[in-house]
Amino acid sequence: MRPFIALQIVPTGIGCEVGGFAGDATPATNLLASACDWLLTHPNAVNAAVMYRARPNVGYVEGHALDRFALGHWALRPVRSNRITMVIDRAVADDPQAMIRLTNAANATRTVAGTDLIGWLPTAEPLGLKLTDGTSGATHGEISNPEILLDAAREAVRRGAEAIALVARMPEVPADQAEAYSRGLGPDPIGGLEAILSHLVVDALMVPCAHAPYEPFEEEGIVDPRVAAETAGLTFLPCILEGLARAPRYVNVAEARPGDVTIAEVDAVVAPWDACGGIPMLAAAERGLPLIAVKSGASACRVSPPELGLEAIEASSYLEAAGILMALKEGLSLSMLRRPVAPLSDALPSR
Amino acid sequence: MVQTFALWIPAPSEGIRASELEISLAEALQGRPLRWAILEAREGRLLVEGAVIR
Asked: Sign of dihedral through CA atoms A215, A239, A18, B52?
């Protein structure tokens, strides 16, 4: 029997009730993964600053790579480990206090998790980042000179990096947005910008990449429990190093070889009910893959499957979604697990 | 440069196809969409937000 593979999407920067904060999707991700042979998800679902608790069968796939994978352009190649290089924004690398904290965090991950981190490179200049908001309330970001980042990332790959841990200094977050986020009431103000940074590197170089912001640590008081991981240490670096250490690599689908995984081998996609307008969900619907839409809110997104004309299996929670995955894996008809059982007739449903 | 965009577009009458929508976005934005998603659907139109490489 071939492996059962599912995709879990928790879109970034739209305030997902589950997963829109600091790795707070991890229990849901691990539950879904327990029903699968391989569960593919993106870093922000499981990144929790100094904590990384994703199960070994969770594939840590950057969002842009997941999009290309879902569109059928890229395949994923499972690996035992990756050599990682940190690419550090010059605005961080020139700050001695920041580098002390990052070096200690990197060494902690090397010595405790056994991560193959081979070194770091600074960008030639500060990255020049900007936070922006969409009309929907989602958070986004802009990069004035992407080549500064890409030059350093290319050099890292030339020197042997198989994955890139990116560290950048974030622009100052407006106080009202920071407050709303720390109270669990708004989207991650830097989530959209972080996604752009890693998307850019993945798009240009096709290597696994994840971003950890560097921000001088400030005591914030008691925050929403879903944000609390961000207050538990001095950097956000360890989670991305652990995730990247075993992240699958990306190859053009035309160059895929036995053992590589393509979208044709995916059995289901799980996403929040109100946030089904992303590429993986649309691509899944096109391919007729089961789309399991979990009734879990997103403060800055309002596109459910019916509004998009997509067929979906509705799940009231991630608990139910995990059960649906198990039923699909076992080849059980979902309607036979619910009551009442409809009578058989000679009228076949239209498709 | 990587810039943010927000566009209201007519909803396709025969279903949304991600690859076709991405090509339409590239033409409308005169750049390559790096990240995009539909964030709202209203009165036959879709709000697409994201970032484009120009």
From this structure: positive
The answer, for A297 touching chain B at a CB cutoff of 8 Å, is: no
How many contacts (CB atoms, under 8 Å) link A and B? 102
* Partner-chain contact B34 A63, CB within 8 Å: no
Q: Is A282 on the interface with B (CB under 8 A)?
A: yes
Q: Which among B2, B38, B50 is the nearest to A303, CB-wise?
A: B38
**Residue in B22, B34, B49 closest to A138 by CB:** B49
Per residue in A126-175, pLDDT tens? Answer: 999 999 988 888 999 999 999 999 999 999 999 999 999 999 999 999 99
CB-based contact B39 A142, cutoff 8 Å: no
Q: Which of A16, A64, A200, A303 is most worth mutating to test chain B (most B CB atoms within 10 A of its CB)?
A: A303
How close B30 gets to chain A, by Cα (Å)?
17
Percentages (nearest 5) of helix, strand, coil residues in chain A? 35, 20, 40
Residue A350 confidence (pLDDT): 67
Residues of chain B with pLDDT under 50: none
pLDDT confidence of residue A351: 61
Pick out chain A residues at pLDDT < 70. 349-351
Do the chains contact at B38 and A141, CB–CB below 8 Å? no
Q: What is the pLDDT of residues A186-201, one digit of tens each?
A: 999 999 999 999 999 9
pLDDT of residue A347: 76
